Amino acid sequence: MLKKLALLAFAVSATFSNALAAADCSIKLSTTTAVFSGEQIKPTVSKLICDDEEISASGYTVRYGTNINAGDNEGVVIVNYGGNAYEQRFTIARKGIYITIPKCEKEKGQKDPEFKWNLEEVKNVNSDTLARLEQKLPTLITLTRAEGEDIFNEDGDTIKYAIGFAEGVDALLKKELPNFKVSKKSVEDEGYMVITKKKVTISADDFSKTYGKDDPDFTYSMSRTLTKDELASIGKISIKREGSENAGKYPINVSVANPEPTELSVTVVPGTLTIKPAAVTVTVGDVSKVYGEATPEFSYKATGLVGTDKLKDVTLSCAKCSATGLENVGKYDITASVKASSNSNYTVTTKAGSLTVTQKAATATVGKFEKNYGDKDPKFTFTTEGLVTEGEELELPSITRAKGEDVGSYKVSLSFAEGSNTNYKLTIVPGSLTINPRPVTLTVTDLTKKFGEKDPELTYTVKTLASFDGVEAGLNGVVLAREKGENAGIYPISVTVDEEANPNYVVTIADGGSLTISPNDDAIVVSVKGKSNKVQYNGKEQVVKGYEITTNNEAYSLKYVTYSGDSVISGKDAGKYFMGLSKADFTNTSENYKSVTFDVEDGVLEITPKKVIVSAVADTITYGDAIPSEFKWTVDSLIAGDELDNIHVSLNKTGILPAGDYTLTFDQQSPSNNNYVVSSYEAAALTVNKKVVTITIDDAEKIYSEPDPAEFTYTISGLLDGDQLPGINVAREKGENVLKDSDGMDSTYRISATISSGNNNPNYLMKIRQGHFTIKPYPKRITVAIFGEDVYAKYTGEEITVEKKFDVTLIPMSDEDKLPEGFSYSKDFVAYKGELTISATEMGRYPMGLSVDDFVNASPNFEQVSFLKSVDGALVIDEFGPKTSIAKTGRVNAFGVSAMNHRIQVSCSKVGDRYAVYDMQGNVLRMGAVEASNFEIQVSNSGVYMVRVGSSAKRIRVK
Fold first, then answer.
1. How many C-beta atoms lie closer than 10 Å to residue 948's C-beta?
2. Which of 185, 474, 605, 873 has the highest CB neighbour count under 10 A?
3. How far from chain centre, in Å, is Cα 584?
4. Quick one: 265 and 189 in the same domain?
5. What is the number of structural domains in the chain?
6. 459 with 600, same domain?
7. 647 and 619 housed in the same domain
8. What is the CA 723 to chain-centroid distance, rounded?
9. pLDDT of 742
10. 109 conformational bin, left if phi > 0, alpha if psi -120 to 50, beta if neither
11. 460 and 339 co-located in one domain
């Protein structure tokens, strides 16, 4: 029924009064019952019908009341139409929330444990309201259990003492939480307490021995002290160990004659016998050889073996020995490598031997040489005998001769740079240089004069005289004289040479030489100028031809001049080449001019040296290497076939160089090849690269629930003696679960290292070989109790099918069996293989039929799990249906999962933790590392799965 809230008053005439009267309207809402959420509820107006006419949404406006708290007709929707306001009431139902009570137990005679409860996840409630609820609930809920202190009933079945709300709690919850309907949820195998027998654990003690030694006497220990009668009820306690005598771990089993006495619950825990490997030393023998000989076979001796045992897979190697067997003189380490997996009964220590290479005898013989006085020394060479390889040459030779340039014999000596040719013990045979007298030709200069003039000075020329530092060494004791006479004509000039005054020469006197007396007084001068050219050396033959001729008297015709020489110059190497024009080669053939002289300027070909740039070649070594004894260099634009020598590159450094660049420089001496001149010497660098060192992190392990080792160990290889690598920090990848890979095999966490900032050694490049950290399953057997839960359904006459419900809990047999804080065993660790549902039609109690054979441990963290059924749940069909229950704790887990369309949505997970998805048979379907706090996992089929992230886990049904 609608209530008319207001009428619009108008001052109108009676004619229009009926048209403005309020209409008869009805409102239809999208819902008549909403559920409390802590937020304002706004149902949609689906229809407004006034006077049997449906009004469109554009014709009216809607507003809402407070619409928050639960209650009948508590919600209101107000519609304004035609100047009138209409309201429609609706019900806000109380929000249903559920409490679950975990099962618990105690030993007979002990105090009851503190009963706990959990609040199941509350959805569709705003965060402030939920926070107030979680804060309020613990102050309102008190739990109590059914009375009794017995373990078993008359039929011998375990008695379950129901745990529920204390008297008055239901009324208090309704009063204090009027917006919520708090129910105790009936959860399979939860909500009760059982009383157990006195628990005792008998554990075999762990022992160890060395391979080859006898077993120790085995003992055991008890978790608690028993009376004489209690010990008698157990009977004889026996200890026996299993396994072979090889190194490894073997179980020490403990058993009792009566494992199920009336007043005790006995758990036996095996111990472990660890057979440790025996210590063995492998000593490599020393060997020696002469450089170039074949390397002797390596051998070793092993001490510490047990009985007739022999080591397997022993490898002897010389890391720095040459693959060709041609090692330099010196000492080389011979090391032994023993394959650990082939000798598991031994821990092997190796002692290296050495290969000593001694010098080989060789001879270097200098040749016999000769030259003429004044010539350059020939190139001195030597021959060798006794070198190891064909074509091999001795390094850094230096050949010198005794000083002197006069005719005679001089010793030629050979030496080698200190530290070179260390592989040989050299015998040096010196050579000799013989300087022979130099043959020269003396030519008397032809002279002329006019009749009546004094004789000109008599002169001569000598070809091929020796020259030292640009100064010719001339002849001594030369006497010239002409034939007597002053009349016009030709007068021979004679020559005598004192041989004793010229011991370095053999002198040949050329024919001719005269003084000509001319009858003509006219002085005719003929000028001859040979052609010249200047070019740069290019390795090719250069040619200049011809000359120019003029006279000082136009009356004298040049056709009277004849030339008997060769006016061609050729040359290839740098230097000056003269045409050789001579007055003697020019002749006046005219009888009319008896006083003709020739002024000759010789032609010249000048080949200048080619300019080149010499560049040092950059080189590299590694920190710790010796500095190279010599460095390479290159030259640009060198003519094919030419060579440069006398070029030397050096580095003014010694010892071990830190990593970095070092300048290579030249001594800048001129090359002995005169065809070239160096215009620029270009420096380069010797780069000392960082040396690679390897940090190898040792593998480590622990058992699930134990703390990590106090520290992780590592070794460093490649570091020079005396050097250090400070600031190495070793840590492992986070995670506390036993890891399995996609094939179900054991997997590991990475152990890596970092170098603290500012502690890097600039001479090293660090490589890190990660270690593996293995978390092994909890080795002790644990007992997990199964608690079936009663599921209530209201009788309808139709078949009712419900899911079987159960929970599990770890039953510590003693304080030693308790896992550390943060580690436990939960329902999510269990895969159930039995029928998942139970069906019935009639009223009654139908047992679930839970069997321990249908329960499988799905957690890789535990490897010995025994299941014990404590309570079998049931399907209860009665006239009342589901029971009101209270569930779950007052705090909400951050971690959660939800599912739809073959996808599992994981929320509030920790980035970096490992995750895995298991089916209910315990098989790993998906695994990896969390990359985001919320992520999806795709699965192939519908069904029930267990999702684990880090140490948190939940079970989820995917539709």
1. 23
2. 873
3. 88
4. no
5. 9
6. yes
7. yes
8. 22
9. 67
10. left
11. no
